[in-house]
């Protein structure tokens, strides 16, 4: 059996990589993938702690997070397709809607 600390450390590494991708990258697709990495690291924690405490609530939360993530990706990709059609770029700085 894998110790709980390994799951937590894997989750921390994935969360840091995802946060760095969100904060440092300028491509919208990479930012969306980094957000997915952040949410998947949270799912690993939910499932690991749920298994550690012999409770199914962690798995139920993880399923809800996966469902919400699927909806978020569908909406974000729809918006992304519309922006690419209008602006022909994937750079975040060029896609900014508010000019000020």
What attributes does this structure have?
mainly alpha; quinone binding; 81% helix; 100 residues; 4 helices
In short:
Helix content is 81%, strand content 0%. It is mostly helical and 100 residues long.
What does this structure look like?
- The chain has helices spanning 4-24, 28-52, 57-87, 92-95.
- By secondary structure, it is mostly helical.
- The chain has a domain at 28-89.
- Helix 1 (4-24) runs antiparallel to helix 2 and helix 2 packs antiparallel against helix 3 (57-87).
- The mean pLDDT is 88.
Radius of gyration over alpha carbons?
17 Å
Q: What's the SSE pattern?
A: HHHH
Distance between the termini: 56 Å
> Would you identify the regions where 5 or more consecutive residues have pLDDT less than 50?
none
Tally the helices: what do you get?
Answer: 4
How many E-type strands? 0
Inertia-based shape: elongated
* Secondary structural class: mainly alpha
Strand content: under 5%
Overall average residue pLDDT: 88
Largest sheet: none
- Helical content class: over 70%
Family: Belongs to the complex I subunit 4L family.
Transmembrane segments: 6-25, 37-54, 60-84
GO molecular function, one term: quinone binding
Subunit structure: NDH-1 is composed of 14 different subunits. Subunits NuoA, H, J, K, L, M, N constitute the membrane sector of the complex.
């Amino acid at each position: 059996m894998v110790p709980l600390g390994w799951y937590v450390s894997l989750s921390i590494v994935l969360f840091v990589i995802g946060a760095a991708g969100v904060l440092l990258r300028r491509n919208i697709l990479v930012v969306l993938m980094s957000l997915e990495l952040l949410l998947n690291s949270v799912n690993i924690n939910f499932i690991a702690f749920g298994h550690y405490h012999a409770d199914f609530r962690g798995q139920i939360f993880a399923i809800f997070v996966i469902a919400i993530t699927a909806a978020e990706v569908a909406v974000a990709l729809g918006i992304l397709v519309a922006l690419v059609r209008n602006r022909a770029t994937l750079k975040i700085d060029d896609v900014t809607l508010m000019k000020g």
